Amino acid sequence: MHEPTPPGERDRTRNLHFAAEQCLLSADIASKLELAHGLQRDLEAGLLRCEPLPEMPSLIDAGRPARPELVAPSQLVQRKLGTREGVAALLHAVAHIEFNAINLACDAVYRFRDMPDDYYHDWARVAAEEAYHFSLLQRRLEQLGHTYGDFPAHNGLWELAQDTASDVLLRMALVPRVMEARGLDVTPGMIRRFAAIGDEATVAVLEIILRDEIGHVEAGSRWFHYLCRQRGLDAESTYFSLLERHLGSNVRCPLHREARLQAGFSESELGRLEALCAKH
């Protein structure tokens, strides 16, 4: 017979930040996916409280399986889509981004504890959608005779999460509005490449991801602007200042202008980003 859960611990398990932490720490893929979906489901059902925990959030390392092997970006081999292995390798790279995005969304809930309730609903939804994207890519990899972990990957996205852990405004500026926005730019090209080789199954998955990622970047834009207003900052000048300070204004083009406009970028911002591309 199991001992009853102490009342204090029962209260803790109903805490939103604790639930996000459990998902973030989980190293088992199936458990992480279920915890990500459960985070949104339980929050929407009113089963989780948005009350700060007594302890401060720590700079924890995200849980991940033993594979894939993490290497420097320069060590990753570029494979051509003309081979089954090349298709699987590119899909694996996208799956790795989505796996890290689950952790990023959970960390946005776990770490930043003085935001409005709508903020937590947004990032719990993002965590669930990233888990769905990962599941779609994992299924496609299995159809190609592979699984997540079969190819090496790099840890740049999670390293950026650690670098922005000190400030929610910095996180919103650099993760959704730089790294995830870059996904908006490159996904249409991937869709065209897979369409050119007749891989309609992968095209369908990437179209779902692109549709949802516009919403994820839009959430980042919305909360970035909210925080700038709250702190009396000009959003555009703050964004470009942070971009220069933390990433050396390193911007890659072309930009997917239509998707970025839907995701909360202004025409002025897009013009300035394209001007930075021209300088590099």
SSE topology sketch:
Elements lengths: L6 H7 L2 H10 L3 H16 L39 H28 L5 H27 L12 H8 L4 H29 L3 H32 L3 H13 L9 H6 L4 H13 L1
Helix pairs in contact: 2-3, 2-4, 3-5, 4-5, 5-8, 7-8
Question: Which residues sit in consecutive blocks of at least 5 with pLDDT less than 50?
Answer: 1-10
First-residue to last-residue Cα separation: 66 Å
- Give the overall pLDDT as a whole number: 91
Residues in helix, %: 55-70%
The helix-and-strand class reads: mainly alpha
> Total helix count?
11
Radius of gyration: 19 Å
How many β-strands, per DSSP?
0
Which keywords apply here?
single chain, 280 residues, mainly alpha, Ferritin, disordered N terminus
Structural commentary:
The protein is mainly alpha-helical and 280 residues long. The protein has one domain: Ferritin, CATH 1.20.1260.10. 68% of the residues lie in helices and 0% in strands. The chain contains eleven helices and no strands. α2 (16-25) packs antiparallel against α3, α4 (84-111) packs antiparallel against α5 (117-143) and α7 (168-196) runs antiparallel to α8. The radius of gyration is 19 Å and the shape is globular. It starts with 6 loop residues before the first helix and ends with a helix. 39% of the residues are buried. Mean pLDDT is 91; it is low at 1-10.
Brief summary:
The chain is mainly alpha-helical.
